[in-house]
Amino acid sequence: MATKSLKARHNALVTDNKQLEILEGGIFENGELPYFKDKIAQIGQFPLRPKTLEILQINVGYMCNQVCEHCHVDAGPDRKEIMTRETMEQCLEVIRNTGAHTLDLTGGAPEMNPNFRWFVEEASRAGVKDFIVRSNLTIIRANKKYYNLPEFFKKYNIHVVSSMPHYTRGKTDKQRGEGVFDKSIKALQELNAVGYGMPDSSLRLDLVYNPSGAFLPGDQSALERDFKKALMEDFEIQFHNLFAITNLPIARFLDYLMASGNYEDYMYSLVEAYNPSAVENVMCTNTISVSWDGWLYDCDFNQMLGLKVASKIKHIKDYNEEVLTDRNIIVSQHCFGCTAGAGSSCQGSVT
Amino acid sequence: MADSYYDPADLRKFGNITEWSEELGTKFFDYYGKVFEEGALSAREKSLIALAVAHVVKCPYCIDAYTKDGLQKGITKEEMMEAVHAGAAIESGATLVHGVQMMNKYNKLSM
């Protein structure tokens, strides 16, 4: 398993932004598979337009303690892109005035940003209804300074959303690295111990399931049932909901697909599973994604492809919700990942 | 034409059989889809049965399809291999139980 990001390995996919070339070319260019824009045009959804903003998703940095094989962020310990306090202040100004009801912090491991706790404290005062932190779980056990994260999350009533690729050790460690499963189990038990994930608790603990390979996630509720049963029986762990998220062909997952000879089959699977009714609720229609350096994107995936919003407002310092909402969302073939099957978003399936 | 009998890319074209017989093709795929829905058996259990049968009928397309389907449903490799053994045991049992016929015939013909 790789211990460095693609960027640190000078992989052309990310350093020369070859990703869009791949997603626009090959089987799409030669007409074997349709372009995403043509598919959504058939149901009158092109250009795709935002609805009311509901979720402000802020990526506070690409640094992470893990180097997961499927990571579309290409996050890792060697990534130095970290949101500064100055950009965080610009974000806070927006959080205080936004109409969005959900604030969603992601990374990398957001907790590794040196100003993370300060930012959470400040942002929680803005009174957003749902304040999510996407925690990879192992960070809680990575270093003593993170041991009290469960208490910290509880203090600010943070909604914890954590990745857990499988309820078995082998599958988890294969995707996320040796020892990740045991650390994740320990972290979940600690979150349960302070009240997270308990049936009647208001301390929300949701898990994210990403397939560990070149296949799509199955039915979200069936997977949730299997996860709940196994985690309860084996470790007495409880959680609220499972979000089944489709891996999008970006960064390390794209690199994996190509290196393993699965790229074309995977794109076929995504296109075959295209579900027109998922288009209406794709997350880019109610989300704005902010990068570590304050640029604005339609979603975290477009952020990783370097596709800034098609609006005259492109940076958090110039933020204007009304102007931003009046834009066309940028699409490419990776978008088939969000419309496959029951649809996929950072909040799980969308239909 | 491919120069071998089985081409993995042909699996994607399975739906094309409807083009030469629309009514029967459509009826088959409707039936097929219905069979694998959640019912008295879960979709997960049916996927494992399909995987076992895929091996017994030695259909490479079905093996590819139901290995992938199993992964999508979170089925572990241990469960998949046990399902294959269940199929193999029935298949070898079906051969071996004919041994009784052989024994009957042998005994009848022998003094």
From TrEMBL, chain A:
User: Which GO molecular function, any one, fits this protein according to its record?
Assistant: catalytic activity
Q: What is this protein called?
A: Radical SAM/Cys-rich domain-containing protein
Q: Which InterPro entries match?
A: Aldolase_TIM, ArsS-like_C, rSAM, rSAM_ArsS-like, rSAM_sf
Keywords from the named record: Iron, Iron-sulfur, Metal-binding, S-adenosyl-L-methionine
Q: Which organism is it from?
A: Arenibacter troitsensis
| Domain Arsenosugar biosynthesis radical SAM protein ArsS-like C-terminal stretches | 216-349
Q: Which cofactor does it need?
A: [4Fe-4S] cluster
Q: Where are the transmembrane segments?
A: none
Q: Residues in domain Radical SAM core? A: 58-196
Return the PANTHER family for the record: FE-S OXIDOREDUCTASE, SLR0304 PROTEIN
SUPFAM superfamilies, sorted: Radical SAM enzymes (SSF102114)
UniProtKB/TrEMBL annotation, chain B:
What range(s) does the Carboxymuconolactone decarboxylase-like domain occupy? 23-101
Organism ancestry: Bacteria, Pseudomonadati, Bacteroidota, Flavobacteriia, Flavobacteriales
Q: Gene3D superfamilies in the record, alphabetically?
A: AhpD-like
What one GO molecular function would you report for this record?
peroxiredoxin activity
UniProt protein name: Alkylhydroperoxidase/carboxymuconolactone decarboxylase family protein
The highest taxon in the source lineage is: Bacteria
Looking at the keywords, is Oxidoreductase present?
Answer: yes
Keywords in alphabetical order: Oxidoreductase, Peroxidase
InterPro entries listed in its UniProt record: AhpD-like, AhpD_core, AlkhydPrxdase/COmuclacdeCOase, CMD-like
